[in-house]
Amino acid sequence: MTVYQATVSAPVNIAVIKYWGKRDTKLILPTNSSLSVTLDQDHLRSTTTSRADESFERDILWLNGKEDPIKEGGRLATCIGEMKKLRKQYEDANPNEPKISSYRVHIASNNNFPTAAGLASSASGFAALVSSLAALYKLPSSPSELSLIARQGSGSACRSLFGGFVAWEMGSATSGTDSLAVEVAPREHWPEMQALVCVVSDKKKGTSSTSGMQRTVETSTLLQHRIREVVPKRMEQMIRAIKDKDFTTFAEVTMRDSNSFHAVALDTDPPIFYMNDVSRAIIATIVEYNRASVAAGGPVKAAYTFDAGPNAVIYALEKDMAEIIRLVCYFFPQGVSFEDPMGVFPSGVQSGVPEGFDVNVVKVAETGSVSRLIHTRVGGGPRVLDDSKETLLAQDGSLKV
Ligand SMILES: Nc1ncnc2c1ncn2[C@@H]1O[C@H](COP(=O)(O)OP(=O)(O)OP(=O)(O)O)[C@@H](O)[C@H]1O
Ligand SMILES: C[C@@](O)(CCOP(=O)(O)OP(=O)(O)O)CC(=O)O
């Protein structure tokens, strides 16, 4: 008996030009284009196994070992349904292929980091879901074509279909067929780009991105300025900065766009606050770090950005990352040792402050205010794994325990 199954992993992406606002909430069409950096799956990933079988009675998804209900008309059902449609088209065009598009599917997925905590789990999760079904169905679809479907799971997920530096073009069609992800540059173009995720809280957040951005669309006047005037120019600046590997512009635009997104959150009625005091202290640290570097005749060396939560992501080039980790450890002691997945500190981190940094600008935070640091770098797109080794489903198609 043939088993129709595939296992794929997909990466997280963190936007440097933020998506915030939908013009169509069902199709998930955004009010502005956005741009992100894909992070390395060696450190942060969703892994998903999908199987189609005639004997299955219903579609099931297990997320981190627990069944996640697939609601009729919901985002999961839409993505799975769209993928089945693509398979049907493929079967119609290739009559010798097995007719598996009508079978129910069992899907199991794990995130190797906290889910729904503002660490972009919906992005890697829906990208892995769509990619695993594409591998199971042997679809010839391009990443941009698959991004059209991942987008309907969670907007930011469409950008996780590519590695490197990725734009989500907002498009203009009401059908959404031109609202898709495209590669701006592959990871190999700027492999020195690294990221430090500072986990300020890994608890579920108060206002979800979905409901928060809808409230912003309905009530913020500042959002209209952001959509019309601010983002279009920044998209051009950012694409140029990436192509030219101009870190100073990359960093300045990244920080300004994070600020602009949090400003429109504040301009929402009632206001939405995603950053907390720890987040603001991280901003002050990076601002002072860059000031000291520029004052000494050096470059801008770090960029902060915050999604819909208090966690910071600091982008920096490889050459400066050790200094930045030491600095963050000095002001935000975690109380646990730094995991160091890339082996930067063979004999442990010595926290410290670079020369010229004014230590009076920031107070040392309470231990554990930043609970964890995840050091990673720009990474590649979804990976098809060896299903015989990596499968998350048992032989009978139930969840593997
Ligand atoms: N591996 C996965 N497979 C399928 N769906 C997933 C997966 N991981 C997360 N999701 C979906 O995404 C939801 C979490 O999305 P949510 O936007 O609340 O959090 P987040 O993505 O971690 O935060 P943010 O988007 O603000 O960075 C989960 O409840 C689940 O529905
Ligand atoms: C702040 C953001 O991270 C918002 C992400 O929003 P989501 O993609 O999670 O929202 P939905 O489309 O409603 O699922 C910015 C970004 O990733 O561009």
TrEMBL record:
Q: Which residues form the Diphosphomevalonate decarboxylase-like N-terminal domain?
A: 10-181
Q: Give the Mvd1 C-terminal domain ranges.
A: 195-385
One GO CC term, this protein:
cytosol
Q: In which pathway does it act?
A: Isoprenoid biosynthesis; isopentenyl diphosphate biosynthesis via mevalonate pathway; isopentenyl diphosphate from (R)-mevalonate: step 3/3
Q: What is its EC number?
A: 4.1.1.33
For the keyword Lipid biosynthesis, the answer is yes
The UniProt keyword set, sorted, is: ATP-binding, Lipid biosynthesis, Lipid metabolism, Lyase, Nucleotide-binding, Steroid biosynthesis, Steroid metabolism, Sterol biosynthesis, Sterol metabolism
Q: Which SUPFAM superfamilies match?
A: GHMP Kinase, C-terminal domain, Ribosomal protein S5 domain 2-like
Substrates-to-products reaction catalysed:
(R)-5-diphosphomevalonate + ATP = isopentenyl diphosphate + ADP + phosphate + CO2
Task: Kindly give the Gene3D superfamilies that the UniProt entry links to this protein.
Answer: 3.30.230.10, GHMP kinase, C-terminal domain
Entry-linked Pfam families: MDD_C, MVD-like_N
InterPro entries linked to this entry: GHMP_kinase_C_sf, Mev_decarb, Mev_diP_decarb, MVD-like_N, Mvd1_C, Ribosomal_Su5_D2-typ_SF, Ribsml_uS5_D2-typ_fold_subgr
Which biological processes are named by the entry's GO terms? isopentenyl diphosphate biosynthetic process, mevalonate pathway; sterol biosynthetic process
Among the GO molecular function terms of this UniProt record, one is: diphosphomevalonate decarboxylase activity
Principal EC category:
lyase
In which domain of life is the source organism classified?
A: Eukaryota
User: Keyword Glycoprotein, does the record have it?
Assistant: no
The family annotation for this protein states: Belongs to the diphosphomevalonate decarboxylase family.
**PANTHER family associated with the record:** DIPHOSPHOMEVALONATE DECARBOXYLASE
NCBIfam families on file: mevDPdecarb (TIGR01240)
| Record's protein name | Diphosphomevalonate decarboxylase
